[in-house]
Amino acid sequence: MNDKYTDLMKIGAMNRQQEKEAFVQDLYIEMLLAEIQLTTEKERLMKKIDQAIDTNDKNQFMKLSKQLVDITKRFGT
Q: Are 42 and 23 in contact (CB under 8 A)?
């Protein structure tokens, strides 16, 4: 009886450890995806800002620059 209880406790502990590891792994994946999204969005905006500068479009430049500032604030970079 005591061996079965000990085995069940070990299995429970292993399951909790696996759940913790899965949570951390999911968290890392979410962080990586957010970083990719941020980088892609910043690159897209920078290209559009460069294009607005090249075409001397001040209104578009101001609009896109504000978007870039907002994204930078939102992601804290």
A: no
pLDDT surpassing 60 at residue 20: yes
Distance CA 8, CA 74 (A): 46
Domain chopping of the chain, boundaries? 2-75
User: What 3-state class would DSSP assign to 72?
Assistant: helix
- Read off the pLDDT band of 1 (50, 70, 90): low
Contacts 24+ apart (CB under 8 A), 4-8: none
One-character DSSP codes across 8-71: HHHHHHHHHHHHHHHHHHHHHHHHHHHHHHHHHHHHHHHHHHHHHHHTT-HHHHHHHHHHHHHH
